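Quick one, T. Sequence first:
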Amino acid sequence: MYRKKNWKNKTDDKGSYMAQKKIPYLRIVEPPEDPAEVKKKVSRFRKQKMIDILAIAVLAALAVCGTYLLLKNQTYDRARSASTYKNDISDTNSYVEFAGGIVRYNRDGVVFLNRKNEEQWIQSTQLQNPIIEVKDKTFAVADRGGNNILVFTEDGLKGEIETTLPIEKITVSEQGIVSAILRNENSPRILTYDAAGNILVEQQVTMSSVGYPVALALSDDGNTLAISYLYTEGTSLGSRVVYYNFGEAGQEKADNTVASDEYSGEIAADIFFMGNDRSVAVGDNSFIIYEGLETPEKVKEVTLNREIRSVFHSDRYIGFILLNEEKSGYEVSLYDRSGNQVIRKPVSGEYAHVKIDGDEIIMFDGSRCCIMTDTGVMKFQGNLNVEALEMFGAPGLNRYYVMSVDELKVIYLTN
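Structure tokens:
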């Protein structure tokens, strides 16, 4: 006879047994954290991660900058050749840096070279005594004593100008506008042309009232012309600095004159613009800074108390090679746009070519070269092992282009 089992008792016994046995795969579920607290923890984690990454980046940047500054401000005594680009040409050429390349010019032509000494274009000319004026995007070549002016960009000839009187000096703007001092016995003329040769402004100079023009400069936009005149007063000489504006500011002014200053006993033989808002007139042993283009105003006059041997400048700096009266030799004196002295350093020897390239002063004469930073560090003074006709910085640290008669070299400084 089938008998029904007592499952209830069995279950109770087993349930009692299971209640005593620990089951390993079971966990007590804890209540979830507050969402706001979770967000705070995530935010703190991310911030710490960013701080760690930033700290590593700063340390890496400091290491790179430190190495760069160490190499840049180190003194070197040797110049070695990295590469050479030859070109079989005559030895009657002159060279000047322009628009990432080099302009080669002589009596017979103007050539634009790339940085491998390869000819990009050639323009034939007949210039007995070529002179050149260079801007960032434009340059002009004229025949001093002749009647021809050629205006160029990096793409080639932009225009030709033919004057009716012999050319003494020229200046050019970025747009290719040219102003020229033309010799005319005792009544020189100052003419301003566009690149096509059309006369924009003509000024007849009266020497008895103004003086004789000895230097001129055009602003980048071609609207403002600065001229330094030399005049006599009894037995003494003086300079008159005059600004002409061809825009709206000068339309209602007599002869477009918007500013005029006299400097008795000074001969301001050089004048130039620094960017779009500054210009400088350089005298025998001083310089004057003007501010503005529409109505330029004198903002500072600096006396150097030294004989000026040469002047160089950029949009950032005004530099002078001065005769060192305290010791034998010369000294380099560099000023910022406001007329504050940046460095004053003695230099041995005299150099025919002096220029400022970025934050470095480059002086060279034949194979002799001296490179000084704008902090006064004498970076290099020695022999280039090549007769340099032009020199300027090349891509890379302590590398330079050196142009000689028939080759372009890339050199690097080492010890």
